[in-house]
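Recall from the previous lesson that a structure prediction takes nothing but the amino acid sequence as input. Here we apply that procedure to Dicarboxylate/amino acid:cation symporter from Alloacidobacterium dinghuense. The sequence below is the only information supplied.
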Amino acid sequence: MTATEVLRRNSRQSSYWLGTAGAVVYAIGIVLQAWQPQTVAVTMTLRLLALIAFTAFAVRKRSLTVWIIWGMLAGVEFGLDAPAVALQARVFSDIFLRLIKVIVAPLILGTLITGIASHGEMRSVGRLGLKSLIYFEVLTTIALLIGLVAINVSRAGNGIEASAQQAHVAARTDVRVQTGAQPDSALSWQQFLLHVFPENLAKSIAENQILQVAVFALIFGLALGRLKEEQRAPLLRVAESLTQTMFAFTNIVMYYAPIGVGAALAYTVAHSGLGVMTSLAKLLVTLYVALIAFALIAMLPAALVARVPVRGFLSAIAEPATIAFATSTSEAALPRAMEAMEAFGVPRRIVGFVIPTGYSFNLAGSALYLAIASIFVAQAGGMHLGWKQQLFMLFVLMLTSKGVAGVPRAVLVVLLATSSIFQLPQEPIFLILGIDALMDMGRTTVNVVGNCLASAVVAQWEGEFRKEAPADEALAALTE
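The prediction returns the following tokens.
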């Protein structure tokens, strides 16, 4: 290693220490402010010094995730030190909200059509495809149920009801004005069922009727998958291009995220105080406890029932799981995951089918997160959702979450789509974005590990686990 490389490595290490120290000291300052309000001068000085240190780290790091965290810290400080001005900053979070909302319908349309139509060949795969889909949907449903139970037990969103409730009332009023609905008029089940199906796609998109868009995309994708390859390919390329363009659009909008998140937190802290930080901490703990519960309640029994060697499996997926946790991107771990499972004893044809298919249909980590986040948003808005509404929300999440596991923060779009369908307040979603980087690491890891386990389980069901020697390149890749 050259002297220049050593200096660069030392510089990076010192930069990380600076950022970590800044974030930790800032958190300490917040805790002291909450416990000892009379020490405001001391705690403010401590927080400002910590924020300066973290700003220096953010400037050197130049990472969007780091800048979102910076926006979160700066927004909290702004709301504490200048609440009167911070209350006027809500317009900047509203701008971010509008930019994200315009993405939702096209992205849901493109991802669902691509995810369904691109697997039109499943009919020829037959038994393998059916077993994979059954496994995917059973595990995803269990993840959603665990998420609902966890957030209903922790009730992490209750601490920020006041400000979100006002926003929710305004949002419902705005919806009634746009749709002409009468206040407190309940739809009959026939009217609700009819409302699910679109009569005009352009109208559904214009009115942000996301469930109607999803139903159209589902039927369109199924129809497209029935066509011959030469007839399906042109439209499928258009759908894929639309999806990739909307992901690129999202990436551009996300550059504004630090300002949007900071403004949302500044407004909330100025309006509700520091209770919001306690709620976000409870939300983070709730997610990781639920992910661990899912691993023990669903994934481990699935491995044991299918007689997958658990220790060998954990050893095989250690590296792709680490990559997924560090990058928060399932696609970054995909090549290593496929090599690892082939070396573990899953035939290449099963690996090549199950794992890529799982990236559209087996999103257990993302599904669990979405269940928790959706109910958190409802709790923040002071809404009480009955078990029937929550079960229906499970169905909607299973439909709208397909195809977004490989992209960081893409679940924000799904969460906004869900909030639109159920008329949930949208401001708390941007509070979640402040800790989304920490939550994304856990849910992405579960997505990757779940897809790897699915390939091993299906291989066992097919009676082909460890029946053929893995390719030399797969073994070589894991021994590098």
